[in-house]
Amino acid sequence: MTDPSTAPTKTVPALPDAQTVTEVKHYTDRLFSFRCTRPASLRFRSGEFVMIGLMGEPHPETGKVKPLLRAYSIASPSWDEEMEFYSIKVPDGPLTSRLQHIKVGDEVILRPKPVGTLVHDALIPGKRLWFFATGTGFAPFASLLREPQTYEDYDEIIITHTCREVGELTYGRDLIEDLKSDELLNDVIGEGFRKKIKYYPTTTREESPKMGRITDLMKSGEAFEDLGVPPLNAQTDRAMICGNMAFNLELKDMFENYGLEEGANSKPAHYVVEKAFLD
Ligand SMILES: Cc1cc2nc3c(=O)[nH]c(=O)nc-3n(C[C@H](O)[C@H](O)[C@H](O)COP(=O)(O)OP(=O)(O)OC[C@H]3O[C@@H](n4cnc5c(N)ncnc54)[C@H](O)[C@@H]3O)c2cc1C
């Protein structure tokens, strides 16, 4: 029998950068959102992402545990007292197969080093701001839609969100509905801010009022007709893209044809792109 006083210790150390979960909402069997406490020292620009995660399993021999971290867009605006994230549930995904089971009071790891290109600083001034998202790519725009600067800088904000099924639009739809009663935006911008928002959700598989990929709907001109705006041009339009790789590349190609140039933090221009996930 092993003497407990000499057995190797397998205690899990206190979590570094631990934050406490304050709210969890599930939307579909593939999507959920959660809120957690915000590190006191964390400053970020709306639209940026951080690394978040959970501790991995202890190594069977050494007992050592390493954090399992993934990039996540911050879905809450820069002024929020808490942090919000909008997440996929990948059934066999190393992180999200576990993260999807978090509950209020649990701890998550949050590395307080925000980065990203989907920020106002990476765009030059314009009149109309477009957000193009697929799936969880809506997350950075959930942050920017609650950021007063978005409404200070632009006359019109158009948010397009393409998902396979109607239920996958719920997080974005609820958020835009809640903006109607957003007191901070009302106080800072005035009640006219609501009139600046145009929301254009589409589905590709399940039947909904507007079906189709946004790229196809733009190529045919249908999206512009529905929205009552002309196709994008470098004088008036600025855009942020956050979707899967194929979506990002197709839109980039279309934007170059419209005469828009890609911007970056170091060189602001007409549009910016970020991947919603790695592949
Ligand atoms: C800059 C950046 C920002 C990101 N922001 C978010 C975010 O706000 N919310 C979020 O859920 N994920 C986001 N991701 C993806 C995230 O980092 C993880 O990939 C995701 O949480 C799954 O982790 P996992 O360990 O369970 O599976 P992984 O091993 O990371 O992924 C397994 C597979 O699942 C698929 N997948 C991963 N993420 C997604 C996704 N979001 N939507 C659809 N399919 C996916 C991919 O095919 C991937 O190969 C972001 C990625 C990048 C690069």
Task: Record the SSE blueprint.
Blueprint: E1 18-28, E2 31-37, E3 49-55, E4 67-73, E5 82-88, H1 96-99, E6 107-115, E7 128-134, H2 139-144, H3 148-153, E8 156-163, H4 170-179, H5 183-189, E9 197-203, H6 214-219, H7 222-227, E10 237-243, H8 245-258, E11 271-275
Parallel strand pairs: 7-8, 7-10, 8-9, 10-11
Antiparallel strand pairs: 1-2, 1-6, 2-5, 3-4, 3-6
The chain binds flavin-adenine dinucleotide.
Please sum up the structure shown.
By secondary structure, the protein is α/β, with parallel strands linked by helices.
Note down, in words, how this protein is organized.
It is built from eight helices and eleven strands. It has two domains: 18-115, Beta Barrel (Elongation Factor Tu (Ef-tu), domain 3); 120-275, Nucleotide-binding domain of ferredoxin-NADP reductase (FNR) module (Rossmann fold), CATH 3.40.50. It is globular and about 60 Å long. Strands 4-3-6-1-2-5 form a six-stranded antiparallel β-sheet. A five-stranded parallel β-sheet has the order 9-8-7-10-11, with helices on both faces. The protein has helices spanning 96-99, 139-144, 148-153, 170-179, 183-189, 214-219, 222-227, 245-258; strands at residues 18-28, 31-37, 49-55, 67-73, 82-88, 107-115, 128-134, 156-163, 197-203, 237-243, 271-275. Mean pLDDT is 94; it is low at 4-13. The chain has 279 residues and is of the alpha/beta class. The longest helix is centred in the last third of the chain and has 14 residues, at 245-258. α8 links the parallel β10 (237-243) and β11. It binds flavin-adenine dinucleotide. The site of flavin-adenine dinucleotide has 23 residues, from β4, β5, α1 and β11. It is an enzyme of class 1 (oxidoreductase). One of its GO terms (biological process) is cellular response to oxidative stress. Its cofactor is FAD. Keywords: FAD, Flavoprotein, NADP, Nucleotide-binding, Oxidoreductase. It catalyses: 2 reduced [2Fe-2S]-[ferredoxin] + NADP(+) + H(+) = 2 oxidized [2Fe-2S]-[ferredoxin] + NADPH.
